[in-house]
Protein backbone atom coordinates (compact mmCIF):
# COMPACT_ATOMS: atom_id res chain seq x y z
CA UNK A 1 0.00 0.00 0.00
CA UNK A 2 2.96 2.27 0.39
CA UNK A 3 1.87 3.94 3.63
CA UNK A 4 4.47 5.64 5.77
CA UNK A 5 4.81 4.35 9.33
CA UNK A 6 3.85 7.81 10.57
CA UNK A 7 0.56 7.60 8.63
CA UNK A 8 -0.19 4.19 10.14
CA UNK A 9 0.53 5.54 13.64
CA UNK A 10 -1.74 8.51 12.89
CA UNK A 11 -4.59 6.20 11.84
CA UNK A 12 -4.04 4.19 15.00
CA UNK A 13 -4.11 7.35 17.16
CA UNK A 14 -7.34 8.43 15.42
CA UNK A 15 -9.02 5.14 16.28
CA UNK A 16 -9.14 3.82 12.73
CA UNK A 17 -6.79 0.91 13.33
CA UNK A 18 -6.00 -1.23 16.35
CA UNK A 19 -3.43 -3.86 15.42
CA UNK A 20 -2.76 -6.60 17.95
CA UNK A 21 0.60 -6.62 19.64
CA UNK A 22 2.93 -9.57 19.90
CA UNK A 23 4.65 -10.65 23.12
CA UNK A 24 7.45 -8.24 22.28
CA UNK A 25 4.98 -5.31 22.11
CA UNK A 26 5.38 -4.85 18.36
CA UNK A 27 2.35 -4.34 16.19
CA UNK A 28 1.23 -7.36 14.15
CA UNK A 29 -0.56 -6.66 10.90
CA UNK A 30 -2.61 -9.60 9.69
CA UNK A 31 -5.13 -9.77 6.85
CA UNK A 32 -7.84 -7.97 8.85
CA UNK A 33 -5.58 -4.99 9.60
CA UNK A 34 -4.39 -4.84 6.00
CA UNK A 35 -8.03 -4.74 4.83
CA UNK A 36 -8.67 -1.82 7.19
CA UNK A 37 -5.61 -0.02 5.80
CA UNK A 38 -6.86 -0.68 2.26
CA UNK A 39 -10.28 0.73 3.22
CA UNK A 40 -8.60 3.82 4.70
CA UNK A 41 -6.58 4.29 1.49
CA UNK A 42 -9.73 4.03 -0.65
CA UNK A 43 -11.54 6.47 1.63
CA UNK A 44 -8.72 8.97 1.42
CA UNK A 45 -8.59 8.61 -2.39
CA UNK A 46 -12.32 9.42 -2.46
CA UNK A 47 -11.75 12.51 -0.37
CA UNK A 48 -13.29 11.19 2.83
CA UNK A 49 -12.00 12.72 6.00
CA UNK A 50 -10.82 10.84 9.05
CA UNK A 51 -14.22 11.28 10.74
CA UNK A 52 -16.06 9.80 7.75
CA UNK A 53 -13.70 6.85 7.56
CA UNK A 54 -14.05 6.32 11.31
CA UNK A 55 -17.85 6.40 11.03
CA UNK A 56 -17.74 3.77 8.30
CA UNK A 57 -15.31 1.56 10.22
CA UNK A 58 -17.17 1.93 13.52
CA UNK A 59 -20.81 2.65 12.60
CA UNK A 60 -22.95 4.11 15.34
CA UNK A 61 -26.59 3.37 16.09
CA UNK A 62 -27.59 3.98 12.46
CA UNK A 63 -25.31 1.17 11.35
CA UNK A 64 -23.11 0.67 8.33
CA UNK A 65 -25.71 1.74 5.75
CA UNK A 66 -26.31 5.11 7.44
CA UNK A 67 -22.56 5.78 7.71
CA UNK A 68 -22.03 4.91 4.06
CA UNK A 69 -25.10 6.88 2.94
CA UNK A 70 -23.77 10.02 4.61
CA UNK A 71 -20.44 9.60 2.81
CA UNK A 72 -22.23 8.99 -0.50
CA UNK A 73 -24.17 12.24 0.02
CA UNK A 74 -20.89 14.12 0.54
CA UNK A 75 -19.44 12.54 -2.60
CA UNK A 76 -22.57 13.52 -4.55
CA UNK A 77 -22.05 17.14 -3.44
CA UNK A 78 -18.40 17.01 -4.58
CA UNK A 79 -19.45 15.54 -7.92
CA UNK A 80 -22.07 18.27 -8.41
CA UNK A 81 -19.48 20.98 -7.71
CA UNK A 82 -17.02 19.32 -10.12
CA UNK A 83 -19.69 19.03 -12.83
CA UNK A 84 -20.56 22.70 -12.40
CA UNK A 85 -16.89 23.69 -12.70
CA UNK A 86 -16.54 21.46 -15.76
CA UNK A 87 -19.58 23.08 -17.37
CA UNK A 88 -18.13 26.55 -16.87
CA UNK A 89 -14.73 25.53 -18.22
CA UNK A 90 -16.19 23.79 -21.26
CA UNK A 91 -18.38 26.78 -22.09
CA UNK A 92 -15.43 29.16 -21.81
CA UNK A 93 -12.82 26.98 -23.47
CA UNK A 94 -13.52 28.17 -27.00
CA UNK A 95 -14.20 31.81 -26.23
CA UNK A 96 -12.07 33.93 -28.57
CA UNK A 97 -11.72 36.71 -26.01
CA UNK A 98 -8.12 37.37 -24.94
CA UNK A 99 -9.17 37.16 -21.27
CA UNK A 100 -12.36 35.06 -21.17
CA UNK A 101 -12.89 35.31 -17.41
CA UNK A 102 -13.10 39.08 -17.78
CA UNK A 103 -14.37 39.47 -21.34
CA UNK A 104 -16.64 36.51 -22.21
CA UNK A 105 -20.30 37.35 -21.61
CA UNK A 106 -21.25 33.79 -20.72
CA UNK A 107 -18.36 33.30 -18.31
CA UNK A 108 -19.16 36.61 -16.62
CA UNK A 109 -22.80 35.55 -16.24
CA UNK A 110 -21.83 32.05 -15.05
CA UNK A 111 -19.31 33.37 -12.53
CA UNK A 112 -21.81 35.96 -11.28
CA UNK A 113 -24.36 33.16 -10.80
CA UNK A 114 -21.79 31.01 -9.03
CA UNK A 115 -20.87 33.87 -6.69
CA UNK A 116 -24.56 34.44 -5.92
CA UNK A 117 -25.25 30.73 -5.36
CA UNK A 118 -27.66 30.69 -8.31
CA UNK A 119 -28.00 28.11 -11.09
CA UNK A 120 -25.77 28.54 -14.10
CA UNK A 121 -27.33 30.36 -17.03
CA UNK A 122 -27.95 28.21 -20.10
CA UNK A 123 -25.45 28.77 -22.89
CA UNK A 124 -27.16 30.80 -25.62
CA UNK A 125 -26.41 32.01 -29.14
CA UNK A 126 -24.20 34.78 -27.75
CA UNK A 127 -22.15 32.28 -25.77
CA UNK A 128 -18.83 33.79 -26.82
CA UNK A 129 -19.88 37.41 -27.25
CA UNK A 130 -17.22 39.72 -25.84
CA UNK A 131 -15.83 43.19 -26.15
CA UNK A 132 -18.96 44.83 -24.75
CA UNK A 133 -19.06 47.33 -21.95
CA UNK A 134 -18.31 45.82 -18.56
CA UNK A 135 -21.20 44.11 -16.82
CA UNK A 136 -22.86 45.85 -13.87
CA UNK A 137 -20.47 46.22 -10.99
CA UNK A 138 -17.36 45.69 -13.12
CA UNK A 139 -16.37 49.38 -12.97
TrEMBL record:
Keyword match DNA-binding: yes
InterPro entries according to UniProt: DNA-bd_dom_put_sf, MerR-type_HTH_dom, MerR_fam
Stretches assigned to the HTH merR-type domain: 1-59
A GO MF term: DNA binding
Record-linked CDD domains: HTH_MerR-like (cd00592)
UniProt keyword annotations, A-Z: DNA-binding
Taxonomy, superkingdom: Bacteria
UniProt region (Disordered), positions on chain: 117-139
Any Pfam family matching the protein: MerR_1
Protein name from the UniProt record: MerR family transcriptional regulator
Source organism per UniProt: Pseudonocardia hierapolitana
